[in-house]
Amino acid sequence: MTISVFAQLQPIKSGVFHWNDFEAKTNGDRQSRAILQGVSTHLDYLSMHATTQAVGAAPSTAHANADIEELVIVKEGVMEVMIEGNGTILGPNGVLSLMPQQMHSLKNVGDTPLTYYVIRYRSKKPMKIQRSVDSGGTLMINMDSTIYKPTSVGGVRSYFDRPTAMCERLEMHVTTLDKKVASHEPHEHVETEIILMISGETAQMIDGKEYTAKAGDFYFMESQSNHGIKNTSDQPTTYFAFKWK
Question: What domains does the chain contain, in order, with CATH numbers?
């Protein structure tokens, strides 16, 4: 995709995106779902799609992104991530934070279909590869390697909070909310944020409008949007929250 095409993209509006609204297109041993594409306050390109690889599917074609950073989240199944010839296994809720210019491929190595989200983005500011290297470069994190810390309303697992090649700050964690409680009072921040539902049911107020989401859905909150989330069910709910600037 060229810079001229990026320039034609429209701002992504705050709101909710529902998994069941994403049309699945089958091509051989995999399905793809286009979810969003546009620009945001800090990014001149932001896209999100989901891919499902069948059992025994060929790995994705190895490639490197010249000036695009990626965040990959495993929804279901077991993935082998190959980075420059070295393999790492990620299970459900595993995360790959991939810096630009690294050769990589993704493969289903489990005995069930593999489904994962891919978020691709490029900053409006100049890319800083060395900043990414200094903060750890490409990261691969499984949920069971994180530490669950109880809170007054549930618990949280921190994945990372660091600068990257494209972001002055990229922070990611998983929150669990007890039944019928809010995470916090409605608030605002300079970072753009996505909340991706893992399980349960929630309601989110965004700039005075209420949206609802369940597993597979996600909320998008632009920079300085007023927002607050609560668990609306009688069971705990769990979700990814990640934000950037």
Answer: 3-14+22-143 (2.60.120.10), 144-244 (2.60.120.10)
pTM: 0.95
Rounded Cα distance between 165 and 126, Å, is 9
User: φ and ψ at 217, to 5 degrees?
Assistant: -85, 165
Token pair of 189 as six digits: 């921040």
* Closest by CA position to 78, among listed 54, 51, 118, 109: 109
- Digit-coded pLDDT (tens) for 46-95: 999 999 999 999 999 999 999 999 999 999 999 999 998 899 999 999 99
How many whole angstroms separate alpha carbon 139 and alpha carbon 161? 12
pLDDT in tens, 35-48: 999 999 999 999 99
